[in-house]
């Protein structure tokens, strides 16, 4: 008979949770619009496009630009996905307090992972740029045949690699998509207010914890281990 898993893990979203990647997203967004003869967006508007992967990002970007022509939308997809890889680490850095948070969680015995709707081929580059000595034992980004969050499949794959219990582990993210994903997987859900979604959006979804600082993430996890 197999013994019950007792390992705990903390799995994180990437953009807006671990890393401030907004500049690296705004840059290819506005360069794409420029090439199509469309006006640029500010950071506030771009934030609203983020969360469901790059193809949906471009769809939202073009809808906000008032474009309905499918040919032009496909042009935008092609341009954006050509530009994004070269700009993927542009001004990207961990949010203040995140490296200390990760170190403390490791010291507490938690395994660490990442589950993001960011392009799965580009995600390792971003993590290597921001965390040269990566603390993450399992990383999953968007890839074919695995549904994007909020479907929990990506999270199940990460947790399986970490060999950790879902019900005693934690999923941390900055969006409604992340809260829904963690809840669907049966994990503790921790929303962080320093990311891309307004605090009131996160509050309305009633996560298990709404943290305003990385230290509050550590405190919640410590109290629920």
What is the arithmetic mean of pLDDT? 94
Low-confidence stretches: 1-5
Strand arrangement, largest sheet?
A: 5-4-1-6-7-8
Round the Cα radius of gyration to an integer and report it.
18 Å
Largest sheet: 6 strands, parallel
- The total of helices stands at 10
The proportion of residues forming helix, as a percent range, comes to 40-55%
How is the CATH topology of the largest domain named? Answer: Rossmann fold
H/E topology pattern: EEHHHHEHEHEHEHEHEH
| CATH class category of the largest domain | Alpha Beta
Taking the alpha carbons of the first and last residues, their distance comes to 25 Å
* CATH architecture descriptor text of the largest domain: 3-Layer(aba) Sandwich
Structural class: alpha/beta
Tell me the total number of β-strands: 8
Characterize the overall form: elongated
What does this entry look like structurally?
The chain is of the alpha/beta class and 225 residues long. It folds into two domains: 9-20 and 92-223, HAD superfamily/HAD-like (Rossmann fold, 3-Layer(aba) Sandwich); 22-87, Orthogonal Bundle (DNA polymerase, domain 1). It is 45% helix and 15% strand. The chain has ten helices and eight strands. The protein has helices at residues 22-35, 43-47, 54-64, 70-87, 98-107, 123-130, 153-162, 176-185, 199-204, 214-223, and strands at residues 9-12, 19-20, 93-94, 111-119, 138-142, 170-173, 188-192, 209-211. The strands form two sheets. A six-stranded parallel sheet has the order 5-4-1-6-7-8, with helices on both faces. Strands 2-3 form a two-stranded antiparallel sheet. Helix 1 (22-35) packs across helix 4 (70-87) and helix 3 packs across helix 4. It is elongated and about 55 Å long.
